[in-house]
């Protein structure tokens, strides 16, 4: 449950009235008496910023609540004022579950009302783009460096057009896959690349192949949605004499076509936005993720599409998400996806709870349940209306749940392949990396925002000082700016990359 409007406690925060822990908003020292949850708690240990301390007695085996949800079980007795972390709290997650049946919650389609307007590109298939770019995608890793050479040369040739805003750039997105793959592994690579080729931000796409790879160009083109194929050109490097000259001619053709596009006023409902968190800390679930959740609610209510992914990072909080399914079919598809991901771990002999990361733990997150309870807040309270396979496109207004692991690069690339034209990336630890579409980095705490301004686009800790209404309005204004063409810091730094989910054997 998100924090209430305007609540700003200088020392600690109890997120939900049912919680047995509070979060330190500053470093606290043993012996201090802290006012929290309507009581005075004397601390028995030093508590680092973002970490938890108990505000009531827990016996060994008791469930510990945060966000109003269980985040694990006490392994020993925990007294009020004790630090609560890996030394006394453990996950209760196991394997697959039989989720509670769908309760028949009625889905009311959104009523699209007048709201914020952004300046975007309306494509021929009716979808909207935040950028007008040329993308070069290699079908196989063997021509990845060739794709980069083609892109650099094209950027130089078309420097004036880029400077004058006729196009927003020419980019190559390389990867090591496309050959020595079999079955679903090869299919996943092909689906991901096809989804990227269909992204509206790519006004034109050049697919460069080698010629002898498993991921043949004809099969790759066939996997691209029909409405997006007109903007695609292909080149088999083994089939021409000078592949650089041939690629340059095709890119120039795409640039000429793309240069006719103009930004125009578009409603919020035209946005498709990816929701992502990485390098989370104890503040992520208090500031940044709830901030995204409230925007997600606004976007879904307008008829837009927010996309949630990182399936392993909803383990432990999935029932609350499933309860928001629009209908029984969506519920069943989402439940099957979660259990399929758990089986993916179990079949490798690995626990489903092998998370959070060392950085998460250092930031105050103890168990996967706690990480998940904070992470799902990115999706707000929007109705879950669709479930997407890896590489599948999002079309249904409302919240979409996308198949992908939690890895930052893999899941952010999957969001772009699903059609997201912005990725909203919350972080408590920070990362410089950006992805194919504009990646808006949102800091959960002020120290990160001030210490890494060249990584961070928005400081979500403003929620604590300014309250929800002011911070939410500033965030929406910032997003409208990024959607309308203002570069994110990752774009300005040239931080753009993809990563493909590799599964199965390598021949």
From TrEMBL:
Keywords on record: Hydrolase, Lyase
GO molecular function: hydrolase activity
Gene3D superfamilies for the chain: 2.30.130.110
Superkingdom field: Bacteria
Record field: transmembrane: none
InterPro entries for the chain: GD_AH_C (IPR048332), GD_AH_second (IPR007392), SAF (IPR013974), SAF_UxaA/GarD (IPR044144), UxaA_altronate/galactarate_dh (IPR052172)
Listed name of the protein: Altronate hydrolase
Gene this chain is encoded by: uxaA
């Amino acid at each position: 449950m998100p924090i209430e409007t305007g609540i700003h406690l200088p020392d600690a925060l109890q997120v939900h009235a049912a919680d047995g822990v509070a979060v330190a908003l500053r470093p606290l020292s043993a012996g201090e008496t802290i006012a929290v949850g309507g009581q005075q708690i004397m601390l028995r240990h030093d508590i680092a910023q973002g970490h938890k301390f108990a505000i009531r007695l827990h016996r060994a085996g008791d469930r510990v609540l945060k966000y109003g949800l269980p985040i694990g079980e006490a392994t020993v007795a925990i007294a009020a004022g004790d630090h609560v972390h890996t030394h006394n709290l453990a996950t209760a997650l196991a394997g697959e579950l039989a989720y509670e049946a769908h309760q028949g919650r009625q889905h009311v389609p959104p009523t699209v009302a007048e709201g914020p307007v952004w300046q975007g590109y309306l494509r021929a298939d009716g979808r909207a783009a935040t950028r007008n770019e040329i993308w070069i995608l290699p079908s196989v890793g063997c021509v990845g460096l060739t794709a980069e050479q083609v892109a650099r040369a094209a950027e130089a040739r078309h420097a004036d057009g880029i400077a004058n805003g006729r196009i927003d750039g020419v980019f190559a997105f390389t990867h090591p896959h496309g050959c020595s793959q079999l079955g679903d592994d090869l299919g996943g690579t092909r689906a991901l690349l096809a989804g990227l080729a269909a992204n509206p931000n790519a006004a034109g796409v050049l697919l460069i192949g080698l010629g002898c790879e498993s991921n043949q160009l004809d099969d790759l083109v066939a996997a691209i949605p029909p409405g997006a194929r007109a903007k695609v050109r292909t080149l088999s490097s083994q089939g021409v004499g000078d592949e650089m000259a041939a690629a340059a001619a095709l890119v120039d053709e795409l640039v000429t076509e793309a240069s006719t596009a103009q930004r125009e006023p578009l409603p919020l409902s035209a946005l498709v936005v990816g929701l992502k968190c990485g390098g989370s800390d104890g503040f992520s679930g208090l500031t940044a993720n709830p901030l995204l959740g409230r925007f997600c609610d606004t976007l879904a209510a307008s008829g837009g599409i927010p996309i949630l992914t990182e399936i392993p990072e909803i383990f432990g909080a999935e029932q609350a998400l499933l309860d928001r399914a629009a209908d029984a079919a969506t519920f069943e598809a989402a439940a099957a996806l979660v259990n399929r991901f758990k089986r993916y771990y179990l079949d490798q002999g690995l626990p489903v709870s092998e998370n959070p990361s060392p950085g998460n733990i250092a930031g105050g997150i103890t168990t996967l349940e706690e990480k998940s309870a904070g992470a799902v807040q990115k999706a707000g309270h929007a109705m879950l209306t669709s479930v997407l396979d890896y590489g599948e496109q999002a079309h249904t207004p409302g919240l979409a749940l996308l198949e992908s692991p939690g890895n930052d690069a893999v899941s952010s690339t999957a969001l772009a392949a699903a059609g997201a034209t912005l990725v909203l990336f919350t972080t408590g630890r920070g990362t410089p990396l950006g992805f194919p579409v504009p990646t808006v980095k949102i800091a959960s705490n002020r120290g990160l925002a001030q210490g890494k301004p060249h990584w961070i686009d928005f400081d979500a800790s403003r929620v604590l000082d300014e309250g929800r209404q002011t911070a939410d309005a500033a965030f929406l204004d910032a997003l409208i700016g990024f959607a309308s063409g203002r570069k994110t810091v990752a774009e300005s730094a040239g931080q753009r990359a993809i990563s493909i989910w590799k599964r199965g054997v390598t021949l």
